[in-house]
Amino acid sequence: MNKTVFEISQMDCPSEESLIRMKLDGLTDIAHLDFNIPNSRLTVFHQDTIVLIEASLHTLNLGTIKLSTESTNQTNFHEDENQRKLLWTVLVINFAFFLIEITTGLIS
After folding, report:
1. What's the CATH code of the domain at 22?
2. Number of other residues whose CB lies within 10 A of the CB of residue 20
3. Is residue 30 classed exposed, middle or buried when 0-12, 13-18 and 19+ CB atoms within 10 A define those classes?
4. Among the listed residues 66, 68, 12, 51, the one whose alpha carbon sits nearest the alpha carbon of residue 35
5. Of 48, 9, 11, nearest in space to 27 by CA
6. pLDDT band for position 5 (50/70/90)?
7. Count of CB atoms within 10 A of residue 90's CB?
């Protein structure tokens, strides 16, 4: 497993993160993407060479610069629990409002 760190100068909000995730979605060599938006850094954990990943990032024209590539033994990647809790909270609130709207619709 390799770990490559990129500086992406124009990555300053989650919309660029989504754009990058969509661009790299079809590449099977990628094990994990770690975004650090405040520092404009992307860490890619991948197999084999970085050439195709780097070429895909350059086509986005976000000011991508490869900072380093090194071997790593890291294979466990933890998803952000805060995002998972937030998603479930929003889904529960949305469902509650749906029930309220159905009830008031039937009553009226």
Report:
1. 3.30.70.100
2. 22
3. middle
4. 12
5. 48
6. very high
7. 10
Which residue carries 């090194």 as its tokens?
70
Q: Distance between CA atoms of 64 and 42, rounded to whole angstroms?
A: 10
100 and 49 within one domain: no
With cut-offs at 50, 70 and 90, classify the pLDDT of residue 79: low
* Residue type, position 37, single letter: I
Pairing of strands 64-71, 2-8: antiparallel
91 and 64 together in one domain: no
Positive or negative, the CA dihedral 78, 37, 62, 20 is positive
Structure confidence by residue, pLDDT tens digits, 35-66: 998 999 999 999 877 888 999 999 999 999 99
Name the nearest CA neighbour of 23 among 50, 60, 64.
60
What count of residues does the chain have? 108
Which range marks the domain in which residue 96 is found? 78-108
